[in-house]
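FAQ: What does a ligand-bound record look like?

Like this one, built around adenosine monophosphate:
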Amino acid sequence: MARLLDGSDPQAIEAAAAALRAGEVVAFPTETVYGLGADALNEQAVAQVFAIKNRPRFDPLIVHLPSKEMVPQYAAVIDERAVALMERFWPGPLTLVLRKRPLIPDLVTAGLDTVALRVPAHPVALALLRAVGRPIAAPSANPFGYVSPTTAPHVQEMLGDAITLVLDGGPCAVGVESTVCALTEKDAIVLRPGGVTVEEIEAVIGPVTIASASQSDPRSPGTLPRHYSPHVPLTLLAPGESIPHPRKGERAGLLTLAPCSGVEGYSVVEALSKDGNLVEAAANLFATLRRLDSLGLEQVVVEPVPEHGLGRAIMDRLRRAARG
Ligand code: AMP
Ligand code: MG
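The answer part, i.e. the structure of the complex:
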């Protein structure tokens, strides 16, 4: 079983950094979700990440850096949009896809000539990245396709037998993955909505294109239609659709944005936020799906959330989770 170490302890950071330098795989907290990290320049270490997650090799990894000053070592082209976005949102939940330099292994980028880079806004992640002194490739620390982990115990439950070390940094504040924004063409493209909103990005660089969520985008091989899925079937209601009554004898769950009254027949009703706040809802999303998944329900009916701000990322995850 993996050792769970307190991420605020400098000795734990040193142990994790040493493991990463030695080519091992380590789980660590970020502000979005927990990551499964490996030295991005060590192909064998990166191969272990794919193996542990059972992640298909066509799905490229995000490379994490301790500061934007390191970007020129790995990205070949850094235009003024990239500079402005890094300045405004790093450290933070925004991943930039840029032309890569050759030293980034093909395995990390799934053979693309671009690399996804991010500086995370979590003290434990930053301390670890500084201590290692190398770029760290890190997808979410969960088996491929399942709900991402937002606490260290989530990682332990799923991957505790496959790795040796988990740094604990408490629950993730943002709770959904980073926004992935490609700057390799004339138009900036949001390939995946996430912790930085489209509105916030557009305020800095002007209008962006948003990639379709309904199909796999060749520019972002990892955006699969079905992902982030609990085992229990999810039924995502349409906006304005009234909440159905469960079938007689059915053990069903209901997931809403804010607490609601007057619904009957559900075995369990969970709200993502006390007052319909999308930031709070995003932070609670994955842990709530996981809890609902553990109850042996026959289905979970999910109310949609408004599709602006963080609601876009929440709806993206819910759609993929519901596609059974
Ligand atoms: P995650 O699943 O959080 O590890 O995020 C990785 C996702 O970022 C992948 O599934 C891709 O959708 C996207 N991504 C990573 N690298 C690239 C890249 N070079 N080009 C386009 N998208 C990328
Ligand atoms: Mg993931």
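Follow-up question: can I read anything off the structure? Yes, for example: Residues 278-293 form the longest helix (16 residues).
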